[in-house]
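Quick start: read one record
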Amino acid sequence: MAYLGIVADDLTGATTTGVLLARSGVKTKVYFHEEAVNKTTDASEKEAEGAIVISSNSRAYKPEKAYETVKFATEVLVGQGCRYFQKRIDTTMRGSIGTEIDAMLSVLGENVVAVVVPAMPKSRRILVGGYSIIDGTALVNTPVAKDVRTPVTENYIPRLLETQTKENVALIPLEKVLKGSLAVVEDMREKRANGSRVLVADAITEQDVTVIAEACMKLQWNILSVDPGPFTAELARQRGLAGQEQDGLYSLNVKEKASVKPGRTVLVAAGSATEVTKRQMQKLFGKTDAHQISVDPVRLLSGAEEAEKEIVKAAEDAIEILKNQSNVPVVVFETALHGTLLDLDAEDKKHGYPNGMSADKINEGLGMIVKKVLNTCGKSRIAGLYMTGGDTMVHVCRMLGTECLEVLDYVIPQTDVSKLADGKYQGMTVIGKGGMTGYNEIAEDIVNALLK
């Protein structure tokens, strides 16, 4: 039976946690939805699993729908025999986190305490005095505050969670963490005795995360870990379920690298509209051998006939390039790097779509384009897929008939390497990156990692 069950609110978040475990020696699979767990995993595989991660795709859901979706995912994990549980959260605190904590607690029982550690120090995401700091900037002063689907406008995390959860929330301050695990144990006991069931802990270093995990082990509480991944991975190590994290083949800091192999191509589906992604892609386009194919998102939303024409045109453009040129290292399909950025909420209203359907249609279009190119050019020509944004990754993989990923490694934290675990293109390497993460040159490094 799997011993660790995880619910993440999007696919890139799911792979981020899964990779941390995989790099620590834990066999980990990520499933795109709840039903896929039973459909794509046979009995022998279940016995061998170390961790099961379900992407609930609930980040942009209304609270009521997020609650029911995460509750069902947790029930599935309990049914798989999982012993320990995590609610994987975004490092920038997007989504209905408090609601999703409530959903998991409702299944796991009244004796379970949620310990929230939002820090991911390797990615320069920390919590100080309850305030989230992203790469040296207050959370509300980062682009996430203006995210088109899930903006975050509250910087004090206990207060943010209080608006979302029915449980009492308390902060374990950095002052206690710096004094060591016994001080954290004492503070946690006091806060729990005062009625708090959601405990948010400051952390600025990996050692701080370790101290919080040590405190939880000393308390011997039934813990629901709520974090981007490092806290859960550290708990797994202290429980004896995982080893120390090791760099893999794709990690940037591995010194011995194979040379780039010519004659193969990376396909990029760039669905993220963030300024971070735009800068990264512009750096990639600065390379003369990067082919940019702009896809008109308006046409993807203008009805089936118009959408099909745009999909076929983009795919045929790419196929023509690949047929006529033997050495094409990368082809980028993008919908949000040219022209005026669409207001997707306004597009939903304009077309009479449910909330979020415009984004889904655009990402489905990217998935169909990638599928057409793969079907024509074949698996041997394509070195791998690189996708920006969790929603984009979900739709592209689904179009390829995949419902499960086996996670392997990361290029840098939050830029994760997996293999398709099922479907026609089983075994193909894919890299997913959140739209808010990475340095300006990361796209080039990802392409090179896939070409090696």
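The longest strand covers residues 404-412.
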